[in-house]
Batch of 2 targets.
Target 1
Amino acid sequence: MKNNITLILLSLLCLVLIFISCIVGSGSISVVDSIKALIYPLIGKDTEEINEGVKYIIYNIRIPRTLFAALAGAGLSICGLAFQSIFRNPLSDPYILGVSSGASLGATLAIVLGLENIIFGISGMSFVFAFLSVIIIIKIASYGNRIHTTTLLLAGISINFLASAFISLLMIINQEQIEKIVFWTMGSLSNISYHSVIGVSIAVVMGIICITYHARDLNALLIDTQTAKSLGVNVERTKRIILLICTLMVALIVSESGVIGFIGLVVPHIVRLIIGSDNRRMIPFSILGGIIFMITSDVLSRTIMPPSEIPVGSITALIGSPFFIYLLFNAKKRLKQ
Amino acid sequence: MIKVNDLTYTIGEKQILHNINFQIEKGKIYGILGENGSGKSTLLKTLTRINNVKNGKILLNDKDINHYTSKQLAQTIALVPQQTNLMFDFSALQIALMGRIPYQKPLYSDSEEDLEIVKQSMQLTSTWHLRDMNAQNLSGGEFQRLIIARALAQQTPILMLDEPISSLDIRHQFEIMNLLKQINKDTNTTILIIIHDLNLALKYCDEIILLNKGELVAFGESKKVLTEETISKNFGINVEIKDDWIKIIR
């Protein structure tokens, strides 16, 4: 009961943030005009008195951008949750494990190779490279059936380094595309169209359904593989399905917005601290938490230094990396005990 | 109930189990004995299909174990693993409820029936009063009983335990063994247990499966298997057996 009330309150907070995100920005539109443009059609009032430019910005830039931020927040957060369960490691997250960097290398290559205008050119390449990163990480970190925590993190860091090195190289070779490429390494929501929102929303909704469907199995995996097997969980199949759907989500998000880090780490972790590790309860909270975290970061990225915009990836990293360091210290304390 | 035919298990070049044959009957308690590295855990993992059977055959109720679905198997055999290293916060009740996973449909919440069965198995193992505690904060004995409660919630005809008492003090060892005996009596559950204490094995187990270097060296009634001769041969210690009590002599 208490949980349900919290969920309702958090959902309301999401709506408020979505509203705020649509009315503020680095552009020179006044808040009042934005509110008018947003509210008038809803209450059936004539929108003719509103400037066309304002309408365009609200409807074709801010709304898709806000929707995308919500989807990306929810998607990345729930991917973190799922990764933590299948790797049985609270520090797993698509960014730290190098999946996001892999995807961004794929996107960069797609641009350099001129695949931009082919359908699924960028997102397809992102997926292939994100998937390759996952496979490499698992190969490096697994000993028989077990996945070693430290090696997993180190493997992720190596993939991150490797991908960034290749991206820098590609930038130097292709000076004329440098601006486009930089975008993928920093994470930004400035190029979002309805087109991208639709693609990503399909993947994220599929992902959420799939992870919710396997929530109990993921709980058993949090105990350990042997226990999960003895409880009738088809461990290998579950891991494969979850990895595939998460990689797809991350790749699609990254191919539209670049690398946005740490959401999958920070949000599930805070949720777990508050309500415990039962995935069935964590899923709705992580989705809402991800939306809140992402939209807040995006609003900050647009309003801290007007008129210029800070890449949203830097904001999430500014919040996320100290948090990650704090978690590492905690892990160390646990080891000492 | 379980028939093991020519079971061989290798990891890489190393042969862990060699040509094992035996047959488990319903309603008895079987003790699996042997030195460290004799293949006890591997045998149990193979019987629960955590290790895949490649060479040899295991028949469970006259059906090849490989033909069971994961859920069917989990409804037939429950396992208490050797060690559970809990890294995440779960309440004791949440852990015990996981025993119902083999029966639950995805997306449905826990039914009244599930809760009732879990309540009974937690009461039986005296863990019901701990239900709201974080399982990470339980003592060794409490946690072991909780894992047994989870296995009982699976409501299986067969229960397998990998060294459930090895890390417990003597009083808790007896407590767990008495509990298993009671479960065996009340529900006619077949129990396979890996155990190191020869006297407890003699006292509680009906039959002994004795392994040495991956081979089945003796199988049968406890008193007939645990003799001074087999013990000295397979454990490398000299003992004297008097009134069903095994005493080590220097």
Target 2
Amino acid sequence: MTEKKAPSIDREAFRALIDAYGSSPHRWPDTVRDGAVSFMETEEGRVLMTDADQLDAVLSRLQSPSPSTRLTASILADGETWLARRTRLRRWAISAGLIGVGLAGGLTGAVAVVVVTPPPALSLNGTMTAFGELQSDSEWTQEAP
Amino acid sequence: MDDPDADLVEGIASGDPQAMRKMVAAKLPRILLVATRMLGDKGEAEDVAQETFLRIWKHAGGWRQGRAKFDTWAHRVVLNLCYDRLRRRRDILVAEAPEMVDHGPLPDAGLLSDDRDGETVQRALQSLAPRQREAIILVYYQDMSNRDAADVMQIKVDALESLLARGRRTLRVILNGEMT
């Protein structure tokens, strides 16, 4: 049975690949990885990898920040505050007759927010900030390929 | 769409404290990494991380499965908060302006001890145009696939690759002394 050959990649395509993604195959797109690995193992590929290797080695010196205990506790405390507020809203909504008791058990955070405040309209773009909706990234920062 | 965070989001929506703890454990390191790399300031990055989670707590109940991955949305939130901060600092470049950004090697390139190498790289990242920085953070430091990173940045993959290539070329110049 003939082994399936990885799609080939030429010198320029390989150079463009490592220019963008660096020298680690795990960052290369699935669609080209096998062919690129084959090219990487050639003499030409090894030469082209040198600069990418060096840059990647330098970039990797930057250590990942570890969340402090204080930050973690503060974020969880915010969550507890939000939960407590949502529970109070739920009770208020029931007592005010805005929702039935039967619905209270299934009341989600989103409904609780809708009852009391304008819906925050969960934005797929996640553009809500302290200053309201940000203009989309395409509106203020354009990077032409 | 198969969203690995779906169960956690549902747990948060139903008020499960355990789900909240798991979400923090899973996402806070990644969110903090993005904010730290984008802003170059630990204090501001922590503030952004906290604001991001405030939005997660508030909006988990309204999350609609299938439209996008929760992780994509969370990354978009933290990045927008970072851009908020960067604009406040008034150092955002709307368009690349080579005359405004010095892409030459850093004055101390090549002269730093191992302890300070991270600072050199962080300063080099700060020298990049924000969108190039964002692309490199998502692909290189967050290990996102090109498709996921492009989704976060709301651009096509080829545009992402262009940002990555340009960012890496600029970093190579800036860090030139570090790579010899």
